[in-house]
Amino acid sequence: MGTVVVTVEVSAPLERVWQSLTDPDVASLLVRSFGRAADCGGSARLDFGDGDFFDLDSINLNFPNVIQYDWRFLGIGPCDSITWRLVANDAGCLVTVTDSQSGRPAEAAEMLREGWLDFTSRLVGFHATGKNTRYDWRRELDVGTEINASAKDVWDCLFAPDVLAQWLPFDAPIESGRQVTVCDELEPKELRLDDVAWQLGQQVEFLLGDENWTESTTCRIELTARETDTLFYVSHNGWEHIDQDQSEQLNQRRRFCEL
Questions:
Q1: DSSP annotation string for 179-227
Q2: Helix, strand or coil for residue 256?
Q3: Angle of helix 14-22 relative to helix 106-129, nearest 10 degrees?
Q4: Under 8 Å CB-to-CB from 216, ≥6 apart: which residues?
C-alpha cells in the first residue's frame, strides 16, 4: 500500500487546530469548505472553488484527536484513506496526516507527499498569523480513475479510432491539425489539436488551443498498469498562459474539470 505520512508542529491549542480542520467557517481559510454534512459516518464535499473537489465518505470525527475519512478526487479518483491525529505538546500540538491508497506507486507517493507538506505548512501559517492561507487556484489539472481491466485491454478498447469520439470531451479522433467541437455549450466551441505524440499502448500527448488564446494548453492521457487494474490518468495544463485575464484562465480550467 502506498502510504504518505507527514507531521508538523502547530503553535496553537489542540482544540483550535481541531476547529480549523472540521469547522467549515474556519476551514474555509485553509480550503474552500468541508461542507455542512461532515457528520460521523456521513459524507461531504471538500470544494476548492477552482473546479477541484474531493468527495468524502465514511467520516469519523473522534474529538479532539482523530479525524478519518475516505475521499476521491473529483469524485472519480482512486479511493484514499485519510487520517489526522492531533497530540497536544508544550508548543501547541503535533499534527500527523496519513494518506493511504492501495497500489499507489512510489513516484506518485512522493508527489503526494509534496502536496501534503504544502497543505500542512498552510495549516501552520494560518495558526501562526490568523490570516487566510488558501492559494487562489491550482494551475495544474490532473485526475486519474481506476479501470478494472489490463492496460492492453483498456488501450485497445478506448483508443480504437472509431471509439475515441465516444468518450473524449470533443467530437473527433486525436490528430494533429484537426479542429474539434467541445461537447458543452461554452465558448470557445471549437479548439485545435496540434503536435500529437503517441506512445502506443501507453500514452498520447497533444496541444489543445484556440486562435484567441495566447498559448495552447498541453494535454496528456496515459495508462499505468497496476496489480489488479489500470490507472487511467489525464493531465491538462497551461491555463495560466491562455489569456492575460485570470478570470478567463480560471473559467476554462473549471470547464475542463467538469468535462
A1: EEEBSSSPSP-EEEEEEEEEETTTEEEEEEE-TTSSS-EEEEEEEEE-S
A2: helix
A3: 120
A4: 192, 194, 207, 208, 209, 238, 242
Closest CA to 135 of 146, 126, 145: 126
CA 50 remoteness from chain centre:
11
Question: 107-143, pLDDT tens digit by residue?
Answer: 888 989 999 999 999 999 999 998 888 889 999 999 9
Distance CA 132, CA 27 (A): 10
**pLDDT band at 103, cuts 50/70/90?**
confident
Q: What are phi and psi of 104, to 5 degrees?
A: -70, 125
CA separation for the pair 81, 58 (Å, rounded): 9
Confidence (pTM): 0.90
Q: What is the β-pairing status of strands 217-225 and 203-209?
A: antiparallel
Beta strands in the chain (DSSP E): 2-10, 44-47, 53-62, 66-73, 80-89, 92-101, 142-147, 179-181, 190-199, 203-209, 217-225, 230-237
- All three cell numbers of 5, joined, read 505520512
Measure CA 23 to chain center: 22
Q: Which secondary structure element, helix H or strand E, spans residue 151, and what is its range?
A: helix 151-158
Catalogue all structural domains in the chain, each as residue range(s) with its CATH number: 2-129 (3.30.530.20), 142-258 (3.30.530.20)
